[in-house]
Amino acid sequence: MKAFLQALVKDRPADYVEARYEESTTVRIVYRGPRLETVSESVLTGGALRALVNGGWGFVSFNRPEDAEELVSAALAAAERVGRERGEKVTLAPVDPVEAEVRLDPGEDPRRISLAQKVDLMGEYNRRIMAWGPPVTTSQVLYQEKFTRLWLCTSEGTAIYQEKLDLAGLLGAVATRGGLTQIARHGFGSSRDFGVARGLEGRVDEVCRLAADLLDAPVVQAGEYPVVCDPRLAGVFVHEAFGHLSEADDLAENPSLQQVMKLGRRFGRDILNIYDSGLERGARGYLPFDDEGTPTEKTYLIREGVLVGRLHSRESAGRLGERPTGNARALDFRFPPICRMRNTGIEAGTASFEDLLEGINLGVYAVDSYGGETNGEMFTFTAGYGRMIRNGELAELVREVKLTGNVFHTLENIDAIGRDVSTGEGPGGCGKGAQAPLPVSHWSPPIRIRRAVIGGR
């Protein structure tokens, strides 16, 4: 395959040409209540060609390798036409050509476990939820896995072969009483080890107990509070509210956002360090090379409270006169690479959990994330649940906890950061440009926000 792709990109009338080819196998298992709803194992193969001619990009994808030679001409023609119409110079930031092979180094390799064994394991978890009894009425159990073999060759001499594994799952319990329904869940995920899916019986019991307890929990009283966010919510917050603002392909097209996100601007206290990294083995966002062949790295976005970096493809780095960071990612061969996050998080601080609670007479501990939305610098996130903080101690359970505000004001109000980073993973992924769900991670410690708006009753 390497020689085939190298022939496709060699000596073409273009400023740059790249060719990708991948073979992927996907497994998906879904239980809903007593029913095994989905068991599937599918194989997808195909490739993509991308060409840059006089500032214009052309992109084609294919399933049959025998069509690739003809489609190179189509990609070149499209790039030439776009370049002629666009009339704008595109400079790709330079990277050294790379020849490399990245083989999967698994813990417990899911490829050595039969589909029937995976179904049985998820079925055991599902039966445990269903056997809990009232008020737990039904379940949501998900397992998904994708193993990919990916080849990349470019006209600049890069030739990379990578093996990628992404697996994730969800164990959820649904409790119902009268007209009220509450859900609790535990997620898991890894880029190298099926072992994260084993031994979760205790987690099943925890989610069943929590779902039942939430039926008796009051809705949090809306207002402004000191808020402690658990690692999962802190990670989702920094990904959604700040990470997307740092993706430089959008930034390069938006002069007003460039002024807001100007390097050197202070966004928080000296204790605040935010990064995006592809280096953490085991994280779903682990990525030795991006889909342009750029080696990944740990990229600091905020260091000691000051904006110091952003997330680049080669094109966005060239536009802004900066360095590529290895953030050009494509969901699969059907899409071109665009700027995407990998593992985005807040770096550990020095505070113990007790330190984070200390001095809070009345506050909220917000736990987990059930999603949310952002609009520019404004955000709203729904926590899985919360506990009131009273006189520096965790108190009663509360539900319908929504954190809302301005991302920049919120960053300024982070006044303590925990020392214990959670590496918890979960299912789902990031969406952008019709490419979803892309595997990403959020490894963060708990954080304390001095003042935040909580929506509730």
Molecular structure report:
With 457 residues, this protein is α+β, with helices and mostly antiparallel strands. The protein has two domains: 2-214, PmbA/TldD superfamily (PmbA/TldD fold), CATH 3.30.2290; 223-455, no CATH class. The chain contains ten helices and 24 strands. It has helices spanning 2-9, 68-86, 115-130, 201-214, 231-243, 248-252, 255-260, 314-320, 353-357, 407-412; strands spanning 16-32, 35-53, 56-62, 99-102, 136-154, 159-177, 180-190, 223-229, 274-277, 298-303, 306-307, 328-329, 338-339, 343-346, 362-367, 372-375, 378-382, 385-390, 393-398, 402-406, 414-417, 430-432, 435-438, 447-455. Strand 10 (298-303) and strand 11 form a beta hairpin. The longest helix is centred in the N-terminal third of the chain and has 19 residues, at 68-86. The relative contact order is 0.14.
Task: Summarize this structure as a short list of keywords or feature phrases.
alpha+beta, 457 residues, 22% helix, 10 helices, 7-stranded mixed beta sheet, 2 domains, 9-stranded mixed beta sheet, PmbA/TldD fold
Biggest sheet architecture: 9 strands, mixed
Determine the N-to-C terminus distance.
Answer: 60 Å
Number of helical segments with 4 or more residues: 10
The rough form would be described as globular
* Rg over alpha carbons: 24 Å
Oligomer: single chain
Strand content: 35-45%
- Count of the separate structural domains: 2
**Helical residue percent?**
10-25%
Mean pLDDT: 96
What ranges have pLDDT less than 50 throughout 5 or more consecutive residues? Answer: none
- Structural class assignment: alpha+beta
Tally of DSSP β-strands: 24
